[in-house]
């Protein structure tokens, strides 16, 4: 859960949170789909839903808002990369 500027709680699903973290690693839609075991079009839908929930203008804005809200951290990205050497760092 994150809080937007209007102090309304926003709820991201587990899958939306997963895709947000993968997007923060700089993965392409196809790479995110392969890692999550879903279709690329489904990844795009999760990204769009998350972007709209967060009232972000684009992916970069969405990720920066998630970092500002404490939903994503650089440390999380580094740990994820250490566990899987094929993952890109954020």
Strand content: under 5%
Low-confidence stretches: none
The chain-level mean pLDDT equals 83
Shape: globular
Strand order of the largest sheet: 1-2
Task: Specify the structural class.
Answer: mainly alpha
Q: What is the chains' assembly state?
A: single chain
- The number of E-state strands comes to 2
**What is the gyration radius calculated from CA atoms?**
13 Å
Description:
The relative contact order is 0.18. The protein contains 5 helices and 2 strands, in the order ββααααα. The model has no long low-confidence stretch (mean pLDDT 83). By secondary structure, it is mainly alpha-helical. The two termini are 21 Å apart.
Secondary-structure blueprint:
Elements: E1 2-3, E2 9-10, H1 14-24, H2 29-36, H3 40-54, H4 59-68, H5 74-83
Antiparallel strand pairs: 1-2
Which tags fit this structure?
90 residues; mainly alpha; 2 strands
Short structural summary:
This protein is mainly alpha-helical. The chain has helices at about 15-25, 30-35, 40-55, 60-70, 75-85, and strands spanning about 1-5, 10. Strands 1-2 form a two-stranded antiparallel ribbon.
């Amino acid at each position: 859960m994150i809080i937007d500027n209007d102090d309304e709680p926003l709820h991201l699903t587990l899958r939306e949170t997963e895709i947000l973290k993968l997007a923060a690693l700089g993965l392409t839609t196809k790479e995110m789909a392969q890692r999550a075991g879903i279709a690329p079009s489904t990844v795009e839908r999760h990204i769009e839903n998350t972007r709209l929930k967060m009232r972000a203008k684009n992916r970069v804005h969405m990720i920066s808002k998630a970092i500002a809200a404490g939903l994503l951290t650089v440390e999380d990205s580094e740990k994820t990369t250490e566990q899987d050497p094929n993952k890109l760092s954020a």
